[in-house]
Specification:
single chain; 430 residues; alpha+beta; OB fold (Dihydrolipoamide Acetyltransferase, E2P); BirA Bifunctional Protein, domain 2; eight-stranded mixed β-sheet; five-stranded mixed β-barrel; binds 4-amino-1,4-dioxobutan-2-aminium adenosine-5'-monophosphate; binds magnesium ion
Length: 430
């Protein structure tokens, strides 16, 4: 007799199999009991009939508390009314460990209560669905880059310098030397791209954000790509193809999860290539038409991004931001140096910026000047400047925030549910 996953039960119709899992819920009478089992791959209703199983085993079901770990054996039957389309007629079960009184019951709990118990909260169907979509998205990125011959080149986590400004650095002591947790793998990705041509990295990044919003985590995962000989337009085209591929994969392979999450999938299905592209200046006009009092040169806040993306109902690229609000490495537009050849991708439905990217400065003198203007310590960037001394080429790249993308594709209110253990302002337990 084989042990199978609930999600694969369809392949075992009318066979006797064993499910290894946990008791999610139970109900029933003195003659029939329904155990709802979860095994990480799905939920299954297991029917226990007293007459079939005998009095002793039947009575033992009374001792089975929520989250008791248990192995249940029985016959797989079709049951159109059940969630997955199947149920099990139980012939026997083996208790692995009786659970103590479980704090997360089937009634509603407040989010603070749940966050304190995040290690248990992730066992609920909704959280499991989100984490499954997250996993699919991660696989989709990797497959996308693999199919296109990109090399996966990992960037370090401990770094001696800032990539995205000095205000959000997490510092640490590196054997007496000052070091920081990486805000972005980009600078190292640029070096890797000069070696390998087209590369990506995918890892955790850290920002000591002072803001407590629905979109910010202190620790989040970023997919970053860097391509030698790519200009801004090549960069944007690659990004939209990647995002489109990821949406398609989630729609294709996460139907059940999206249903659990009540996601309006039509909104995702309606997304078409190419995504609209507008300049920052055009975006400012859209804001003013919507009645916003917005000054050219300011950075967009979340409400502004929502107005802009609602205008299109699609992911939209905003390019050529003012030089003064963007990072030191952004290449100025040769036709207007007050703006840079960078673009952000704004997700629809108010999810805001999910990608930041652009073409990098390839000129040594200009890059040195920018490092000084941004009051960054030149010594820490000597190696980075070398990339402009030895065979500098036009190159571009981008970084996509995984958690914001998960929030968008799952249709979530808040980013805290998109990662198993979120790190938020003043909150790092468990
Ligand atoms: O726009 P950002 O800061 O760009 C960079 O870090 C570039 N160096 C990337 C590159 O070109 N290789 O961050 C990129 C993305 C944002 O668009 C957003 O999706 C996400 O990272 N992000 C965050 N996600 C969650 N919490 C935070 N605190 C985030 N900060 C940025
Ligand atoms: Mg950004």
């Amino acid at each position: 007799m084989s042990t199978v996953l609930i999600k694969n039960l369809g392949k075992h119709l009318n066979e006797k199999v064993t499910i290894q899992g946990w008791l999610y819920n139970q109900r029933g009478s003195g003659k029939v009991k329904f155990l709802i089992l979860r095994d990480g791959s799905g939920l299954l209703q297991c029917v226990i009939v007293k007459q079939d199983i005998g009095e002793e085993l039947f009575d033992r079901t009374k001792t089975l508390t929520q989250e008791t770990s248990i192995k249940v054996t029985g016959l797989v039957k079709e049951e159109p009314r059940a969630a997955g389309g199947y149920e099990m007629q139980v012939t026997g079960f083996e208790v692995v460990s009786i659970a103590e009184e479980y704090p997360i019951t089937h009634k509603e709990h407040g989010v603070d209560f749940l966050l304190e118990r995040r290690h248990l909260w992730i066992r609920t169907p909704r959280q499991m669905a989100i984490l499954r979509v997250r996993s699919e998205i991660e696989h989709a990125f990797r497959d996308f880059f693999y199919q296109r011959d990109f090399v996966l080149a990992d960037a370090p986590i401990i770094t001696p310098s800032a990539c995205e400004g000095t205000s959000t650095l997490f510092g640490l002591d590196y054997h007496g030397e000052k070091a920081y947790l990486s805000q972005s793998g980009q600078l190292y990705s640029e070096a890797n791209a000069m070696a390998l041509g087209r590369i990506y990295c995918f890892g955790p990044t850290f920002r000591a954000e002072k803001s407590k919003t629905r979109r910010h985590l202190m620790e989040f995962w970023m997919v970053e790509a860097e391509m030698a000989y790519f200009d801004m337009d090549d960069n944007i085209k690659l990004q939209e193809e990647m995002v489109y591929y990821v949406i398609s994969r989630v729609l294709e392979r996460c139907t059940r999860e999206l249903a659990i999450l009540d996601r309006d999938v039509e909104k995702l299905k309606n997304i078409q290539l190419p995504f609209p592209r507008i300049s920052y200046t055009e975006a400012v006009e859209i804001l003013r038409e919507a009645g916003e009092d917005f000054t050219w040169g300011e950075d967009f806040g979340a409400p502004h991004e929502t107005i802009i993306s609602n205008h299109f109902g699609s992911p939209v690229f905003v390019h050529r931001y003012p030089t003064s609000i963007k990072a030191f490495y952004m290449k100025p537009d040769p036709e207007d140096s007050s703006v840079v050849l960078g673009a952000d991708l704004l997700a629809p439905e108010g999810y805001g910026e999910i990608i930041g990217g652009g073409q990098r400065i390839d000129d040594l003198e200009l890059l040195k000047q920018r490092i000084e203007e941004h009051h960054l310590p030149v010594e820490a960037f000597e190696w980075y400047l070398d990339l402009r001394k030895y065979g500098s080429v036009p190159h571009s790249g981008f970084g996509l925030g995984l958690e914001r993308t998960v929030a968008w594709l799952c249709g979530l209110e808040h980013i805290r549910e998109t990662i198993p253990f979120p790190r938020m302002l003043h909150k790092m337990y468990p």
